[in-house]
Amino acid sequence: MKKTAKVCATCGVVGEPVGFGSVEVVLALFLLFLGILPGIIYAIFVDYRAKACASCGARIMIPVDSPRGREIAVRAAGV
Predict the structure, then answer these.
(1) Could you state, in order of their start, the residue ranges of all structural domains in the chain?
(2) Which pTM was predicted?
(3) Residue 74 in contact with residue 66, Cβ under 8 Å?
(4) Given the DSSP bridges, would you call strands 6-8 and 14-15 parallel, antiparallel or unpaired?
């Protein structure tokens, strides 16, 4: 699956979202100690879901190649 760049709906920065939060890491390690399967499932789920804008930390990241994403990117560029 090809990764596309995303634009932040809050600040307009274009780029890849980054992972965040250390609580998720601690919880994943705890679940790994309880049983391998629940920990692995949780780690995959958190890695897939817990992404945010690298600039402002907002969780609303939209693909740049979508109509709304293009609109936000153009507005943020000031064109």
Answers:
(1) 6-77
(2) 0.59
(3) no
(4) antiparallel
